[in-house]
User: Fold these one by one.
Assistant:
Number 1:
Amino acid sequence: MPKIIDHDEYRKHLLQKYFELFSHKGYLDVTMRQLAAELGVSTGTLYHYFPSKKDLLEQMFHMASRRDSSAVLDQIQDDDSLAHRLQVFVDYVRDNEKYFQDIVLLSIDFYRFSDSQEFFTVMTEADRYYGNTFVEGLQLEPELALVANIFLNGLVYHRLVFPETVPFDELAHHFQEMFVSYVKARHEGGDNSP
Amino acid sequence: MPKIIDHDEYRKHLLQKYFELFSHKGYLDVTMRQLAAELGVSTGTLYHYFPSKKDLLEQMFHMASRRDSSAVLDQIQDDDSLAHRLQVFVDYVRDNEKYFQDIVLLSIDFYRFSDSQEFFTVMTEADRYYGNTFVEGLQLEPELALVANIFLNGLVYHRLVFPETVPFDELAHHFQEMFVSYVKARHEGGDNSP
Amino acid sequence: MPKIIDHDEYRKHLLQKYFELFSHKGYLDVTMRQLAAELGVSTGTLYHYFPSKKDLLEQMFHMASRRDSSAVLDQIQDDDSLAHRLQVFVDYVRDNEKYFQDIVLLSIDFYRFSDSQEFFTVMTEADRYYGNTFVEGLQLEPELALVANIFLNGLVYHRLVFPETVPFDELAHHFQEMFVSYVKARHEGGDNSP
Amino acid sequence: MPKIIDHDEYRKHLLQKYFELFSHKGYLDVTMRQLAAELGVSTGTLYHYFPSKKDLLEQMFHMASRRDSSAVLDQIQDDDSLAHRLQVFVDYVRDNEKYFQDIVLLSIDFYRFSDSQEFFTVMTEADRYYGNTFVEGLQLEPELALVANIFLNGLVYHRLVFPETVPFDELAHHFQEMFVSYVKARHEGGDNSP
DNA sequence: TATGAATGAGAATTCATTCAT
DNA sequence: TATGAATGAATTCTCATTCAT
């Protein structure tokens, strides 16, 4: 076993692996023993890095929810149309759907099993982070950006939970059309008159 | 305890109470003993009605997801506009938000802890039931009705999980506007040309 | 396995057995698993009767420290001399030395591992109980009775802990002599003049 | 941390600190990690000086039980009366009551957790050491000195364990009176006739 | 039918000890 | 010598489920 020099580096390594494992089983179906075995360490080592299972969940969610979103923004140019910008988001969610479904599952576990204080702090931060990404990426006021954000969340949730899966692109397409028209109309007409 | 003659009636009574209890704690935080105590019966009696905890979850979710939606449809007249029809749905979700949040939480537990066969069967049915309600209520083709359904799910989920709560009505309003405009435009123009 | 009718009766039965076991091993060297095995029940059953190991210790000490002392008092007649009365106590302690040593060991565990509130309550009661027995048995004022009580405690403790065991009777004899003389002198001379 | 040249000196320093820590927590409530942290060394270093926790307990008790008693003897002159000599002992125990209570607690832990061989050796030596101190200090035959020793042990134990604390001096006073009278009478009358 | 005492596998967590650096 | 990450057996306690009454 190699001596680990960077304590934090190694902790992140464990968290990453845990996230992957979690996507198959869920917080309560992964025991600390299983987890340790899967990660190739002893339970003692796990507890050396994380004081409790709850803490592990919290740190893991914290890390997972801060996933770099620069990949989205990088695909957007300053003079891109709204339609294109939204398409980039839709594509990103579709291409990473499994990841976002895991985040949904995880967020429910996090809701149930973390301290409400910790939950509030982490979720508020995550909310801002994603919110900002939508605002920046779509170049819209926060409220409108949030509408797109929420629809995509709803789509991910729906496809996770209702198994007779709806086609992602078709539904997204409807939303994209209505969203872009709406924004265009708003900006032309002043407010939200037609 | 009044003598319950109707076995099924009594079972539903237990399931209803379990749903209430569950909404506070979650599947794994309600033990069979607690549940029995709360319902005023012995664990033995509980097992007399439900062969296992998993089964209880399944029956309970089945019942909960079939909640009568006639209340929504009853508020809609044949000649109501789409805008009004959608407003009825939005109002219904807003007024029963806690219930729908519980359904979200429950659906995740159900996803995690039921047999996938059972999950598939029950969720498919629930999906159809809600889908039909939207189709009937909005008088739209399934795909479009589903877009509204999904947005409202997303809104419920978002407000459950992100604590710096977004105002329900404001967001819903944006969606309602864009949705109605979009549908109107579609029906006027033939397909989805602007 | 016979159905136990009297819950409390059975609890006492378990406590009694636990005390015997404890005398060999000590609070921390008897695991709940071992204890259950020794008592012929499952760990679950143990926890059915006692909410925690600490609670088990507390209930057990409570029971052990209330051991009936009527056996001592029964051997004393109203017109017995002080010397005789003290002899009865000395004999009783000598004949039950193992039990009293266990109480000493147990009281230290109790000191260490119980809640201080519970400790205070139980020990105060035990103190009064033993104190009263000495007062009644010796027919002396509390303070003097306590001197005898304390000496006998010291003797039990000393013989428990220092293995080159001092002869019980010889040491007790010295104390008995000095104690009886002292009391006699006090009562004759008014105070403590010779 | 100053460089300690003398290995043994350093070991004693660690043992001393351990005794202090122990007096608050008890053998089993002080983990090796805590202990190391408190002493400002690593667990590795601790194990460099002491092969095991049990060994640490043994060495520590060995050291603690050999506490220099010259302080007592120094306060006694050759021509002091027995009453005065005993008073010196009583005062010494009262003034160091906390230390003696710790020794009582420690002796029970030592009884429970050391090898019986080691226990026997160390306790026998401690017994002799304290015994001698009483014999020298009181200038009495061993058996009588032991009676005083035992009473004082009993007093320390009683006040440790029974919280409605008895007044030290009052009880000691009775014992001192009876002890001195008894010894005087014995020496006057030849044996132990009145 | 109804009860609740009994079960025991399995969970999270601790901690004395080791050993590569 | 000194370090502290790593170990893993052992601990307390939980809880779905069974079954004699």
Number 2:
Amino acid sequence: MPQGISVRIASWNVNSVRQRLAPLLAFLREAAPDVLCLQELKCETAAFPRAEIEDAGYNALVHGQKTFNGVAILSRRPIEEAVIGLPGMAEDVQSRYLEALVTTETGGVLRIASIYAPNGNPVDSPKYPYKLAFMTALTARAAELLRLEEATALIGDYNIIPDARDVYDPPAWTQDALFKPESRAAFQRLINLGYIDALRAVSDDPGLYTFWDYQAGAWPKNNGLRIDHLLLSSRAADRLVRVEIAKNMRDGEKPSDHVPIYADLDL
DNA sequence: ATGCCCCCGGTTCGGGGA
């Protein structure tokens, strides 16, 4: 049997790609992901720092928007079969979904999506039903993709805390859109389809956070949330060898409030 | 407790994030 090839896939909500260019280039250099999905670009597609990313050795598929949201897929290998925007939400003007196909040099195929799901707060506003509608459309797309029987990774900022062990103070968050039963059920429906939460495939530990608020000393107090997730189809999860949260990226001068999470797949 | 902090647009403040 030929030896498989290790592919590193990563997700990072950078909270403005222009403000985070230096740590972004550092992460590309140090972690050397093969594919990196970005969220919260906070710039139009034309303002994306494409030249710097290409100089670092990456192709970039970008779906930007002025001021808010914005997602991208960076890949060392060519990016094929791009889908821009979440199918089923064609009328949505918010840039929250990108999907593409990446083929390894040995012919391994990986379908990957960069997802920035809505926050949904406050829950008595239209933002909460919009969050749930997005998750419904995402679940429909996720089901479609399973029928392709490929290695698929749906990765990004889901803005959902799956479980009490994924938040520093569960009782304080029970009324929050990120932890409401409907939100958790929406995440669970993706799991029920057969997608695997990569981090939970390798660890049952509590306190494995990916986000710490800028306010109230959340980072030094480790008041974090696990809301950035790598969901893998069984074809991808069968090849999972490692998952890491790059907590070191929360240090430094102007960090994002999220840190990268990445996984190695032996494709 | 929705204020703390951070980012954006475009300006000395408001909206948004989570």
Number 3:
Amino acid sequence: MKPYNQYCPVAHALDLVGERWSLLLVRELQHGPLRYSDLHERLEGCSTNVLATRLKDLEAGGVIARRKLPPPAGSSVYELTEEGAALAPVLASLARWGLRSLGPPPEDLETPSGWLEKALRTTVVAYAPEARIGFDVSGEHASLDRGSVVPGLLEDAEAVVTGTPQDIYCLLVEGDIGAAEIEGDRAVVAELVEALAPGRPVAP
Amino acid sequence: MKPYNQYCPVAHALDLVGERWSLLLVRELQHGPLRYSDLHERLEGCSTNVLATRLKDLEAGGVIARRKLPPPAGSSVYELTEEGAALAPVLASLARWGLRSLGPPPEDLETPSGWLEKALRTTVVAYAPEARIGFDVSGEHASLDRGSVVPGLLEDAEAVVTGTPQDIYCLLVEGDIGAAEIEGDRAVVAELVEALAPGRPVAP
DNA sequence: CCGCATCCCCAAAGATACTG
DNA sequence: CAGTATCTTTGGGGATGCGG
């Protein structure tokens, strides 16, 4: 893509990661290195040539790096550099903004393994620095543990939230405290919901 | 642009503002409404048809709105909606990330009126919630005032920083406390520089 | 099978001219 | 001033090929 040619940090950032698919590619690599085929599979709609081009561009831009797995694996993987990992706040703020108009999840939402952890990490964790809350969403388990996201249900969670993805959306995005089943200390969940209030979607 | 068709807040956000020029257009509108010609002038390299298309897309997406100025002005202006204004954290985090690899400003940097305020607002203000620091950069004046940016030099600033854009870059981005002239309390400037340390550029 | 490179087609970007 | 119309060029999307 032609560079913007402006001395501006935003324009420069977009020169590096502003092309189509680039930020989604970074999103996929946020939770660990992936192979070419893994990326191609997760980025449905991104054709092979575009993926190859993006990978080269992002590598040239210092956002990702390729690494040869030690034998006998043989294959190579892509991973975020320190620069690339530093994009986390960008993805988080984009996600928070996107939630304002995303709408509730469809009934037939496919929830691949690990989605709950990723969802909590990119959209919620920063707002719950002290909470210890477990989530049981459609059988997947993850927890907020004092500012970080951990797999499974905490033994000593202050509260456990149970529901479908739709319930969780109503609870965390729309702020409806009654949307999901809450065991334990409702107040600590209410506190989280309150912290998420700015940026709540308004009627369109 | 074809939508990503993923139930993901990041993908949805990029569907709305991920196209070329979109975020730069929002950047320009962040500090007040602008007319078509103003935008066309500031977004050098963005042709008229593309600008018209983006304005329509962003309006359809609820990010910006057009407003007829009351007579006798007659012309219409574009401004951010509440949705669009909520993109501020996205632009701020993008700017902070872009600073990691932007490099120092060129000698012949053109500094249009108001650039200093905008620069402080998008890249620094969030890190200085208590500071009262004045900046005199190449003749432009602006100040940090307890978490907000104000034009001019504060009467009762704790410190005043004076220098060229290059000096300010060395001070705030590279963290070189000796790069610019500091009158008053050096410690409060040092504190700001310290707060900006995460995300400092590393050697490429 | 994995990791691309090539080819074709079309949609969108860039540049320029022109109009209500 | 605020766009639309037209033309050319670039890049994305989809399918396929091909070496390791």
